Amino acid sequence: MADTQITELQERLFTLDRKIKPLEWDLSRNQINEFKKNTLNQLKAEFNTIKSELDSLKQ
Question: Looking at the whole model, is its pTM more than 0.85?
């Protein structure tokens, strides 16, 4: 059961990372609007939450 959850969380982290990277690139080049900036912050918050959940499962 825990192995399945770990795999699902790792896949979710990978997906979130693929969504976050282009938005960070746009932000670094000052080519981002407020909506996308808010989306980036939400994705980062979700990424951190899932990462901490994954870390707690691995222990």
Answer: yes
Q: How far apart are the first and last CA of the chain?
A: 14
| Residue in 55, 39, 43, 46 with CA at minimum distance from that of residue 5 | 55
In angstroms, the CA 49 to CA 34 distance is: 23
Sequence-distant (≥ 6) Cβ neighbours of residue 2 within 8 angstroms: 57
User: Per-residue DSSP letters for the chain?
Assistant: -HHHHHHHHHHHHHHHHHHHHHHHHHHHTT---HHHHHHHHHHHHHHHHHHHHHHHHH-
* Residue-wise pLDDT tens digits, 5-14: 999 999 999 9
